[in-house]
Design a protein that fits this description.
60 residues; little secondary structure; flat; Spore germination protein PD
Length: 60
């Protein structure tokens, strides 16, 4: 996949995250290259996915 980005001025205010998944990226700013990969060595029917664990609430 080819993806073209035109960088302009970035102004970030407040950011509030409530949860992060096991395969996620949170990025603010510039990056030249991101390499992503994934591999499973077990059959899909044996994979157990539990509930998401939220981050601590603001002020904790």
């Amino acid at each position: 996949m080819n993806y073209t980005v035109i960088n302009r001025e970035v102004q970030v205010g407040d950011i509030y995250l409530t949860a992060v998944t096991s395969s996620s990226i949170f990025l603010i700013g510039d990056v030249d290259t991101i390499h992503l990969s994934s591999a499973f060595d077990t059959p899909p029917e044996s994979l157990i996915i539990g509930p998401l664990v939220p981050l601590a609430p603001k002020g904790s």
